[in-house]
Specification:
The chain contains six helices and no strands. The protein is an all-alpha fold. The chain has a domain at 60-163: Arc Repressor Mutant, subunit A, CATH 1.10.10.10.
């Protein structure tokens, strides 16, 4: 992420140097000191590309969270209550502890989201309902689900980056 920010800053500096030596025909007093529109577009494109990368990784982490939660004998906190499987799987103590810690850390991160974002993630990502079914379950439109799934994933990605679970 820092490399991207440094690259964007370098591009902006180069463009400022170029702009300071030439006078643009579209330049007037109202646009002086503002970033060049091409720089703004490249910054937005870089951010969107980075978000898309993190969305996939966040979904993978959510699926791992679901699997580990069930292996430790619990449903993910987003889905509700505890449950216990009839089949017992044996793990080494370290692996089991690591999984419990991961599940706990993910639950703390998910608690930082608003209720609607948690519900969208629970229904669409963890329970794997399609967008129409998710909309029916949450009593909203398909468009709302299409709009809010990437937003919820971006918010969760930011939280995971802050706490160091996602790099």
């Amino acid at each position: 992420m820092n490399d991207t920010v440094e690259w964007i800053a370098a591009v902006a500096e180069v463009r400022e140097d170029e702009d300071s030596h030439t006078i643009s025909p579209n330049c007037d007093e109202s646009t002086m000191g503002q970033p060049h529109p091409e720089v703004i577009e490249s910054v937005d494109e870089a951010r969107e590309r980075e978000r898309r990368i993190y969305r996939g990784r966040t979904v993978a982490m959510l699926r791992k969270y679901m699997r580990y939660s069930m292996e430790t004998g619990r449903l993910p906190s987003l889905l509700g209550r505890e449950f216990f499987r009839a089949k017992v799987t044996s793990y080494t103590v370290v692996t089991f502890e690591d999984r419990v810690i991961f599940v706990h850390d993910m639950e703390r991160c998910l608690e930082k989201l608003d209720e609607f974002s948690r519900q969208i993630i629970a229904r669409h990502i963890l329970q794997e309902h399609d967008q129409e079914a998710t909309a029916r379950l949450l009593q909203c439109t398909d468009r709302t689900v299409r709009t809010h799934v990437p937003i919820a994933l971006d918010m969760l990605s930011e939280i995971l980056l802050e706490v160091g679970l996602l790099e």
